[in-house]
Amino acid sequence: MRNASHFALALTLLVTLRATAADNDLDRLMALLAERTRGHVSFVEQNYLAVLDRPVEASGELLYERPDRLEKRTLAPRPASLMLEKGDLTIQSGRRKRVLALHDYPQIAPFIESIRATLAGDRAALEQVFQLGFEGSLARWTLSLVPLDAKLKAVVREIRIEGARDELHTVTILQADGDRSVMVIGSS
Hints:
Elements: H1 2-35, E1 38-48, E2 56-65, E3 69-76, E4 80-85, E5 88-93, E6 96-101, H2 109-120, H3 123-129, E7 130-137, E8 140-147, H4 150-153, E9 156-164, E10 167-175, E11 180-187
């Protein structure tokens, strides 16, 4: 009986130490990301939809300027642009342009905030919307974002961001209905 209680205590300490180490690594990652003031990278995104036999692919570039300017320029298959700046989302496709106040569209804000807040190293902003999970080390990490809001969770099951040091490599959005998108990010 005594050995079992020692084992349980050792196991509890080990779990606590691992959680503390992961939390420290997450803090270090957020600090490292917060140092970056701007970025310009290319992307290839594949959307896997249950109604289609093959993924829909798009490619283009992402531009980021701290603290809150994020632009996704799709170049193929046809030009389009999504730009977040100071809480407004500007959508441009062809000659059509639309500006939305992001706070009026709570169903899309978390998608955008997941990338913007991660790039900004803004852990507090992420924790307002998501339950955070961190695996790995600064050399190679995975950030798991699970929505806290039940309505959002009914749409998005999880957003998974993978990277190394201060670079994001992959953003995967797993939807509740089984559809998913995978964005692979490269250097520009």
